[in-house]
Amino acid sequence: MNQQIVSHSIQEINHYNRVLEGNKRYVAKKMEEDPLYFKTLSKGQSPKYLLIGCSDSRAPPNELTETDPGEIFIHRNIANLVIPTDLNLNCVIQYAVEHLHIHNIVVMGHTCCGGVKAAMTQDSVGGLLDLWLNQIKLVYEKHADLIESFVDENDKITCLSQLNVRAQVMNIWKNPIIQKAWQKGNPVMVHGWLFRVETGYIEELLIDQHTPEEMCKVYALKFKLESEKQLSKHVSPTGSPKNNAKKRFQNMQRKLIEHINQLKENKIEDFDLETKEIGGFIESSKDL
Ligand SMILES: [Zn+2]
């Protein structure tokens, strides 16, 4: 085997062992402070915060906020995105809100974010990654004038990082799990943070002057409470949910047919013109 490869492998193994040795030192230190620390930790968790952060190794939530294991429920992905169809993230949000009863959700972005930087260029970083970063490109496209007004390249990235956090906070507002929590009177708050890698400080971001309810009217879902579900089971046969649904569907069908007929009438002139043109073509084809 090449000498260089052997030397490189030894270095890698040493690095790997250093991480495991670090764990032994961590346990020893904790046990020295409190011999029951891990026994207490094993009894359960009741974190007060859900943090959605970037996977970047420079932005570890617990270290940055001087919090202990058990205090923050954490989900991390590239560029702290809240994609509505992300099954993994939705399970985390649902568990945090409905089972851990967390009332504070934080989206934490950071400066010098590789994901944000990559989304600003046209260079491909690979199939799935390009697809993932498209979510940031949407934010960039929407605010390109503002972002490009900055001369310094790092300022552009920082500006897009902030706008990205804002967009992800709003995605959480629109999430049905959060909409349901709000309707049930659970006051879930969503915060936006930007961690400045170059200073170590976290800055709270202003998300919007409007309330989430004003911003997300289109996404506001109405959920039936348990008491309402019970009531709907006891309505008379003529007003049963099944009959109502059938009537509503028939009404919808009538409206649809009227709507299509209306469209046809409005386009009748175009239709006639097209027919004449086609007819003319057929007539002229006969001469060939
Ligand atoms: Zn990042």
From TrEMBL:
Pfam families documented for this protein: Pro_CA
Catalysed reactions listed for this entry: hydrogencarbonate + H(+) = CO2 + H2O
GO molecular function, one term: zinc ion binding
Broadest EC class assigned to this enzyme: lyase
Region forming the signal peptide: none
Residues that coordinate or bind Zn(2+): 54, 56, 110, 113
EC number(s) per entry: 4.2.1.1
Biological process annotations from GO: carbon utilization
Keyword annotations: Lyase, Metal-binding, Zinc
Protein family: Belongs to the beta-class carbonic anhydrase family.
Protein name per UniProt: Carbonic anhydrase
Naturally occurring in which organism (per UniProt): Paramecium octaurelia
Lineage summary: Eukaryota, Sar, Alveolata, Ciliophora, Intramacronucleata
